[in-house]
Structures are given as structure tokens and as C-alpha cells.
Amino acid sequence: MNPRFAFIATPLLVLAYGIIRILDGLDGSRGPGLAWTTGHLAFLAALALFVPVFWEMRRMAGRGVVATVSAGLGTVGILAAATQFVIDIVVGFLSADHAAMGVLFDRVQAVPGVSIAIYDGGPYLFYLGQLALVVQLAVIGRVKVWTPLLVLIDLVLPIVDRDLIPVGAIFLLVSFVPLARELAPAARPAAHSARRATTHA
Fold it and tell me: Which of 55, 106, 172, 192, CA to CA, is 20 to 30 A from 186?
């Protein structure tokens, strides 16, 4: 997969999830139904793309211990968040209405360890790892000093109000575009070398 694609597609998928989520709630409740499932699938796709994004950021940060730990914690957080969204999708499929979804969610979260690992603890490693990686890139000058602030805004806005997820996704896109551009110079020389090799063959 082209890492540049992942850096651009990830915030766009988060944006799509945020918009679909708002539309799903226009009738006063969210899920079950097509909007619920589609929005969650969009965010699952974003989470999948965050994996190569994190490990590419780790490479850009120098592959050191701190960068590796940050990427590792972020990946664990991705797995926790992805599990939560898979549960949401399954609950949506099994429920006849929104009230029935609440009953199933209560049963899932009542399982010992699930609440802290999947809902109240694990996913925050995703946010922590992401912010830590961007801060490291800012410290070594790979991104602008204000980039971590944009990422922090993206992470905080959903805590303030989950309807602000689309706004946060735009901040994330603005912060990821320079990272995608950082990958471009490495790709161009490789392509140029390939053309030269073909010319002299």
C-alpha cells in the first residue's frame, strides 16, 4: 500500500464516519440500520489505515525506542478501538431497534475486563500513540511545530462533543498532508533511478 494514500485516506474516512454519524442521529437515535453500519465500516477502514500510518511515522522519527513504543501502543489502541466498532456492528445487526441495542451493549460491557480493555482504557492508547509520534516528528523537525496541536485538537473535539468529529477530521487532514508530502521526495528519486536503468539497459 502506498503510505501517502494512507495519510490522506485515513482522515477522509474519519470525516465520512463523523458525517454519517450525524445524519444517523437526525431522527433522534443512532442505529441500527444502514447508516449505523456504513459509518462504522468507514471508521474501521480508517483504523486499518492508521496501522501503516503509525509505523511510517515511526520510520520517519528514526525507528528509535520511543518511536517504536509509541507506534506499538498506538497499534494496541487500534485493535481495542476496532474491536469496539466490530461489536457495535454486530449489535446493530442483532437488534430490532435502538432500545434493543442498549440491552445488548449492557450485556457486552458487563463481561469482566471488557469495559476497561475495549471501551474505557484500550482505545486511549491509540490517541496517546498518535500524539506521541507526531510530537517526536515535530521535535526533530520533520513536521511544523504546530502539527501536534492540530492532532491534539482532533483528539479533544470528540470528547467535547462527538458531533465535532468531522471538524476534528479536517484538522487531522491538515496535519497529515505535510507528512504525505514528506514521503514524495523518497518516491521520486527511486522512479528516476528506474528510468535511468531502463535507458542504459
Answer: 172
Distance CA 158, CA 173 (A): 16
pLDDT in tens, 39-72: 999 999 999 999 999 999 999 999 999 999 999 9
**pTM of the predicted protein model:** 0.88
Q: Tens digits of per-residue pLDDT, 1-33? A: 688 899 999 999 999 999 999 999 998 889 999
Distance CA 52, CA 79 (A): 13
Tell me the C-alpha distance between 13 and 53, whole Å: 14
User: What number of other Cβ atoms are within 10 A of residue 69's Cβ?
Assistant: 13
| Beta-carbon count within 10 A of 29 CB | 15
For the CA atoms of 188, 175, 117, 1, what is the dihedral angle to 10 degrees?
-20
